[in-house]
Design goal:
Layout: H1 2-7, H2 12-21, H3 24-44, H4 51-70, H5 79-97, H6 103-123, H7 129-135, H8 140-157, H9 180-197, H10 202-213, H11 218-225, H12 229-251, H13 269-275
């Protein structure tokens, strides 16, 4: 997102003027200028063109309008950063309301995760899709569809909270002078994630880096990897579930230093940047 943020750096005078004058023409111009952020967020969620996309784009636009009305340029945050949080939260709320993050899909994520942990323990490695499908009494096509549904569920778990934080951001303060225990837990989580990443194929590690570090859309990642957008969604869910399962299995070991730490719902950018550097 750095290029997108830099593109709008010259807007600061418009934001200041809007806050002072409440001029409708400035407000409307800023909304139009930032509409591409709505499509960027939809692309990050792996949503393709169609009626569903258009409905969710409408909800995303409401999030954008709300962000424009609430944005305070004096706080030092770039609007693109703030706006994406508000847009994404609005779209994920709509996904839940439209039952596109259905209870069965959420349950299937938990089932796949538990099955992955079990097979990792039994096999001493990541299970193949064929092994996992057989264990869950599914065929591979059904498992891949489940992965596609799971991708949205996993991303929604890390949607912004009302205060703009994510679930992972609510962990204790990691300032060593404020909470040394939290710092140790955070450090162990980093090590656990690094170990878990080593169990994934190179292509899956590349996908996670492209998504969480480079912040590409699913479509852009598909172009890099030479696969379809829907296939990227499946691969994303598979990689995240395997990472979470590996970290949860590590927590279950009696001597594990990460037993008390919370496994984040999805890999966080700042953690991946450190462990893949």
């Amino acid at each position: 997102m750095d290029d997108k943020e830099n593109k709008y750096e010259d807007d600061i005078h418009l934001w200041v003027e809007l806050r002072k004058t409440k001029q409708a023409s400035i407000r409307d111009g800023l909304i139009v200028r930032y509409v591409p952020l709505v499509h960027f967020v939809l692309g990050r969620l792996g949503l393709e063109a169609g009626p569903e996309y258009q409905d969710l784009a409408g909800h995303g636009l409401l999030g954008l309008i709300d962000a424009v009305d609430r944005f305070d340029p004096t706080r030092g945050t770039k609007f693109s950063t703030y706006g994406i949080q508000r847009i994404r939260g609005q779209i994920v709320d709509a996904l839940r309301t439209m039952d596109l993050l259905s209870r069965p899909a959420r349950r299937r994520v938990r089932e796949i995760e538990r099955a992955t942990v079990r097979l990792q323990t039994d096999l001493g490695r990541q299970p193949t899709q064929e092994e996992l499908a057989e264990f869950m009494k599914l065929n591979v096509a059904q498992l891949q569809k489940s992965y596609g549904d799971a991708s949205r569920v996993l991303i929604s778990l890390d949607a912004p909270l009302p205060n703009g934080e994510s679930l992972y951001d609510t962990l204790p303060d990691n300032d060593p002078e404020v909470n040394p225990t939290a710092v140790m837990m955070e450090s162990e989580l980093h090590l656990s994630l690094k170990d878990a990443l080593q169990t994934l194929p190179d292509r899956d590690r590349q996908l996670l880096s492209l998504y969480y570090v480079d912040e590409l859309t699913m479509r852009d990642i598909g172009e890099v990897l030479g696969v379809s957008e829907s296939r990227v969604s499946q691969m994303h869910a598979k990689a995240v579930i395997e990472l979470r399962a590996t970290m949860q299995r590590a927590q279950q070991r009696p001597a594990s230093p990460v037993r008390a730490a919370a496994v984040p719902p999805v890999p966080q950018r700042r953690v991946l940047q450190e462990v893949t550097a």
